[in-house]
UniProtKB/TrEMBL annotation, chain A:
<dbReference type="InterPro" id="IPR019128">
    <property type="entry name" value="Dcc1"/>
</dbReference>
<keyword id="KW-0235">DNA replication</keyword>
<comment type="similarity">
    <text>Belongs to the DCC1 family.</text>
</comment>
<protein>
    <submittedName>
        <fullName>Sister chromatid cohesion protein Dcc1</fullName>
    </submittedName>
</protein>
<dbReference type="Pfam" id="PF09724">
    <property type="entry name" value="Dcc1"/>
</dbReference>
Automatic annotation (TrEMBL), chain B:
<keyword id="KW-0539">Nucleus</keyword>
<dbReference type="InterPro" id="IPR018607">
    <property type="entry name" value="Ctf8"/>
</dbReference>
<feature type="region of interest" description="Disordered">
    <location>
        <begin position="88"/>
        <end position="114"/>
    </location>
</feature>
<keyword id="KW-0235">DNA replication</keyword>
<dbReference type="Pfam" id="PF09696">
    <property type="entry name" value="Ctf8"/>
</dbReference>
<comment type="similarity">
    <text>Belongs to the CTF8 family.</text>
</comment>
<keyword id="KW-0131">Cell cycle</keyword>
<keyword id="KW-0238">DNA-binding</keyword>
<protein>
    <submittedName>
        <fullName>Ctf8-domain-containing protein</fullName>
    </submittedName>
</protein>
């Protein structure tokens, strides 16, 4: 029977605490094995006051430390100098492993960081003024800073910026003001028609020049807006019709936060502003997670009315979000509440877990309703 | 702060690999050994002998003898693979290496240092060698104990 001598490391100073064990979810271990060493790298991100996360190229994982009651020795091979037979060297002794749990990108800080940095109409000429202002006190927040400080993978950061409609101007992040964005989109639609360009391969240059000449819209702003709503391939813009129609609808709905608007009236308005060509795409479903629909029974016949209720402005913490949702409405249908949870869960399984934890399900003739769990301690 | 993790699954840096009987418990360059309790060392452990590891080819059982104690181990497949991370120390900063070793985690204590800390994934391990039982005392084998062995296992 072969014998191996088990030894402690010869350089305890450099080896102690130099090893960590990281439990890999299946997809990550497959990614490592298939890449055969030449693959990308991961990063652990977080400020000292945050829980660290591990970011791959396109995913974010929360890191949890699990303390073991057993100890794990990390052993490597070594050849002993005297006899030449192999020995096993214990490099480090570990009492914990790190677990990875898939998590949503932590981009919520972005909204706070970008507050007051909005890019609006009329700022085109005031750019230097703005720069001067920035030197006075308002600090710039650049794309590089966002990459370094936000706990999200690069792909998720880019998607998050796109979703929040944030422009990158001279490296600085500037969210576009919603009315201005809507104005640009409507201009783009009308110019597609007036220049008789096809919406699936429109010349970026022509559109940008038309908007720059006629309305003083900066070309780089226009190009970035076009990239959000479609793909730019070799100077040609293939418009994402649904996304444009959706954004215009959102812009129309936004003023109805406190008062409501009748559904049919809203849809008519919406159809009018997108024009004949895209009228058929208009549908209230596009705006799910941004409105509340209610049947006004006082009117005769009863009408459906909409109010603007964006899920992006609800609290991030699940408990606080459910409290908010149940303050807004005492009970919810499953398909009504789902859009308002989509941005805090990674998948339907996690959503159901939250529903189980924070709500009580009731079944009646109309289906399943979710109500708040009774809380007597507030 | 950002801590980069490089994925470099190369063969062991010093070229030393385990013989096949040992490599079957982990990878060819790295094996995880799990003990119930921990190794309690008095004094300086640098380069000291812990004990003798034997592997029975037929039964795939391993035994570890530490001093008067004999431990029986077995091969356990991990539910999820473990990546073994090794702190990457650039060769130029030998002097500050000692400071690093005082910081066992990626905590803030190393965040402000000039040299950014990075970690390498040196192996992905799917098995481990587990010594889960209490050590059995061995009688009459005192002569075989290495004189410099200070190791001992403590069962919980």
């Amino acid at each position: 029977m072969p014998e191996h001598t088990l030894k402690f490391s010869f350089s305890t100073v450099t080896d102690t605490a130099a090893f960590k064990l990281l439990e890999l979810p299946t997809d990550l271990s497959k990614a490592i094995e298939s890449s055969s060493g030449a693959c990308s790298r991961w990063t652990i991100k977080g400020n000292p006051d945050e829980d660290a996360v591990l970011c791959t190229a396109d995913k974010t994982y929360a890191i949890r430390s699990v303390v073991l009651s057993n100890s794990v020795l990390v052993a490597t091979a070594a050849v002993s100098e005297d006899s030449g037979d192999s020995s096993v060297v214990v490099r480090d002794r570990l009492q914990e492993i790190m677990e990875l749990v898939l998590s949503v990108p932590r981009l919520h800080k972005l909204d706070v960081l970008l507050r007051g940095k909005e890019y609006d109409e009329g700022q085109e000429e005031d750019d230097e003024l703005y720069l001067g202002e920035a030197q006075d006190g308002r600090s710039k927040f650049t794309y590089q800073e966002a990459r370094a400080t936000l706990q999200a993978s690069d792909t998720e950061l880019d998607q998050g910026l796109k979703k929040r409609r944030v422009l990158i101007l001279n490296g600085e992040l500037r969210p576009i003001s919603p009315p201005y964005l809507n104005a640009i989109l409507e201009l783009l639609l009308t110019h597609l028609v007036s220049l008789s360009l096809p919406h699936d391969s429109a010349s970026v240059d022509k559109l940008c020049s038309a908007l720059a000449d006629g309305y003083d819209i900066r070309k780089d702003v226009c190009e970035q807006v076009m990239a959000w709503f479609g793909d730019i391939i070799i100077g040609e813009w293939s418009m994402d019709k649904t996304a444009v129609v959706r954004e215009i609808g959102l812009g129309l709905l936004r003023p109805y936060r406190d008062e409501s608007i009748r559904l049919d009236e809203f849809l008519a308005k919406w159809r009018k502003s997108v024009g004949d060509t895209f009228e058929s795409l208009v549908s209230a479903d596009l705006l799910s997670g941004n409105y509340l629909a209610q049947t006004d029974l006082l009117k005769e016949p009863p009408v459906v009315v909409l109010t603007y209720f964006p899920s992006s402005q609800l609290p991030i913490d699940p408990a606080a979000r459910f409290t908010d949702l149940f303050l807004t409405r005492p009970r919810w249908k499953a398909d009504e509440i789902a859009p308002f949870l989509a941005d805090i869960v990674v998948d339907a399984k996690e959503r159901d877990k939250f529903l189980l934890k924070y709500t009580r399900a009731l079944t009646d003739a109309e289906g399943v309703w979710y109500t708040a769990r009774a809380k007597y301690n507030g | 702060m950002i801590v980069p993790i490089n994925i470099s699954l190369s063969s062991p840096s010093d070229g030393n690999t385990f013989p096949p009987q040992l490599a079957q418990f982990g990878t060819e360059g790295l094996v995880l050994i799990e003990l119930q309790g921990k190794l309690d060392v008095v004094g300086d452990s640098e380069g000291q002998t812990i004990g003798t590891l034997r592997i029975d080819d037929a039964t795939k059982k391993s035994t570890l003898r530490i001093g008067h104690h004999l431990l029986e181990g077995k091969l356990v497949n991990l539910q999820k693979p473990l990546a073994v991370l090794h702190r990457h120390t650039p060769p130029s900063v030998k002097s500050s290496g000692e400071d690093y070793s005082d910081a066992p985690s990626h905590g803030d204590s190393v965040s402000q240092s000039a040299e950014p800390v990075s970690w390498d994934v040196m192996a992905v391990v799917k098995r481990k060698m587990v010594f889960s039982r209490r050590p059995m005392p061995m009688v009459g084998r005192a002569s075989a104990i290495a004189p410099d062995s200070k190791g001992g296992t403590k069962a919980k």
